[in-house]
Amino acid sequence: MPASVDLPSRTTVIERFKGQGGRIAAVLPIHYPRALFRAFGMLPIEVWGPPGVDKSTGDAHLQAYACSTVRAGLSFILSGAGEVADAILVPHTCDSLQALASVLLDFTKPHQMVLTLYVPKAERASDLEFLGKELRRVFGRLVELTGQRPTDAELHAAMDREQQADEVLARLLSERGKLGVGNREFYGVVRSREYLPAEEFASLARAALDKWAGAPLPKRTPILATGIMPEPMDVLDALDEAGLSIVADDFAGSGRRLYKASTAHDPFDRMAKTLLSGSPDPTRGCGIQPRIDHLVDLAKRTGARGALFYEIKFCEPEAFYVPLVTRGLQAAGVPCLAVEVDITDPMPDQLVTRIEAFAESLS
Ligand code: SF4
User: Fold this and answer.
1) What pLDDT is attached to residue 3?
2) Cα of 99 to ligand 1 centre, how many Å?
3) Shortest-distance Cα residue to atom 3 of ligand 1
4) DSSP string covering 246-305, please?
5) Which of 184, 245, 263, 290 has the most CB atoms within 10 Å of its CB?
6) Does 4 have pLDDT greater than 80?
7) CA angle at residue 140 from 136 to 144, to 5 degrees?
8) Pocket test for ligand 1, best of 32, 71, 93, 341 (most atoms within 8 A of CB)
9) Nearest CA, atom 2, ligand 1
10) Strand pairing partners for 115?
11) Ligand 1 lining (C-beta closer than 6 Å)
12) How many Cα atoms sit within 13 Å of 45 on the Cβ side?
């Protein structure tokens, strides 16, 4: 096995960034303009849960059927751990995140600036125009917060850096089947995109690619995995132990954020075009058939022999699609396993057993 990649922790990255005079933005899932924050000297740190947090603080403000990502996310923000953030961004990804934004803005009112972002569900000219205005609105709030006003050239430079990081992420995901590394270590690097500055992620991911490219390939059955994110990450150990390797990634946090480069002259148009260029995504209300076509194509291109739908309980945007999309994949010869988890709970033994049985059925 190759030596493991040395990943800095979120805490280290935050402390270092703040030590250099930077600010931190806590960002909830999923689509948002990383470059906009970086142009203001702010590092976006994504809050996907986190698992292991005591979610009782968030539970007190949310309905019982809100997903664990939102319940844990709110608890985290309201806890001492969230104090490190200078601003909080809540994109309107789903009703649960909309509820979280309302709790912050109307009830708990943290001392940090709370920003919202409405990402449209389609890609018409009017959607692009709307998103451009949304991005300008967020820009204006960040001017208020920081007293800075980045130039167009600075915004473009920040977007260039994010574009390069996205290109390396795309290489990592597309070359996954040829890399001699287990799921757990691989996703440690992939998910460092959630908190590392773009330029640091790009250099760390390039080093990981070099390291893993020459390593012997473990004998594993290739699969496609989809859902919001592989959390708790113990699921990746369970997949490793069952002899399954994720070679096709459609997680909302990684594979669905491989944005295409835009050459638009206006920085806000460029940001808007980029953000709307991801693959078919249920959280953006994509059509069922485009989603099936995309996943079938991804499975065929990567040689995935089955598909794991790793879903979070009460995640409505995803849940509406699962029955029809799994049927479409199965009709195309891709067997599916759909499971649901609460990211704040330990991995249930029953889930490990289902993953093992799925692995056996594919071998
Ligand atoms: S897990 Fe689903 S419901 Fe929860 S925040 Fe994410 S998209 Fe929304």
Assistant:
1) 57
2) 11
3) 315
4) EEEEEETTTGGG-PPP---SSHHHHHHHHHT-SS--GGGT--HHHHHHHHHHHHHHHT--
5) 245
6) no
7) 165
8) 93
9) 315
10) 89
11) 29, 67, 69-70, 93-94, 96-97, 228, 283, 312, 315-318
12) 26
For 41: left if phi > 0, alpha if psi spans -120 to 50, otherwise beta; the answer is left
Burial class of 300 by CB neighbour count within 10 A (0 to 12, 13 to 18, 19+)? middle
Report which protein residue has its CA nearest ligand 1's atom 1: 315
Average pLDDT over all residues of the chain: 95
Residue 52 has pLDDT above 80, yes or no: no
pLDDT for residue 216 is more than 70: yes
- At 56 the pLDDT is 84
Distance 307 CA to ligand 1 centre (A): 20
Q: What is the pLDDT of residue 255?
A: 98
Residue 220 Cα to ligand 1 midpoint, Å, equals: 30
Quick one: three-class SS letters along 14-49? HHHHHHCCCEEEEECCCCCCHHHHHHCCEEEEECCC
* Distance of CA 261 from the midpoint of ligand 1 (Å): 26
CATH for 1-363 (3.40.47.10, 3.40.50.11900, 3.40.50.2000, 3.90.1150.30): 3.40.50.11900
